Amino acid sequence: MENLKRQAEAAIREFLELFPMERGSLFVLGGSTSEVLGEKVGTRPSLEAAEAILEGLLPPLLERGIWVAVQGCEHLNRALVVEREAARAYGLEEVTVYPHPKAGGSLATAAFLRFQNPVMVESLKAQAQGGMDVGGVLIGMHLRPVAVPLRLSLRRIGEAVLLAAKTRPKLVGGARAVYTREEMLKKVEEYRQRPL
């Protein structure tokens, strides 16, 4: 279990180095402890593995003031555990259900037991700015458009495949639009240099 904690901590620290999320941002975590232990999703839940992963992953996020949402499994229609204050901040509707290892999954259960004032919400309304998927549990529905894969050097936690994503604002406009501050400043300078 100590190895799972170290892997989770290394993964989140690299994630935050590549994508330094702002205070008040929303991070979504989905995972299967069965997959972490080398089994098929839902066949071998482990609160011990979930607790180890959260011990490594939560402190770096929480010390930066980032809200964490932990996705439950399909038996709860992927409802998520969040802190009540995060639900209020993001306008999320609370639902009545309590996760347990066989319905909701071990990660959601461990998060519910660990969070200070946990509530369950049905959806993040596609507002998470970043997230990690441990074991292919499909967190994409909770991420803002446009999700961009983050390639981490750590490719697995335990035996589970680790995928990470950040988001960026949509690019809008047409042929004249620019998408970086540098391009904008260049266009302003060109405009100022025009003949009158």
From TrEMBL:
Protein family according to the UniProt entry: Belongs to the UPF0340 family.
NCBIfam families tied to this protein: TIGR01440 family protein
Q: Which SUPFAM superfamilies match?
A: TTHA0583/YokD-like (SSF110710)
Q: What is this protein called?
A: UPF0340 protein ETP66_02515
Which HAMAP family does the entry mention? UPF0340
Q: Which InterPro entries match?
A: Antibiotic_NAT-like, DUF436
Q: Which domain of life is it from?
A: Bacteria
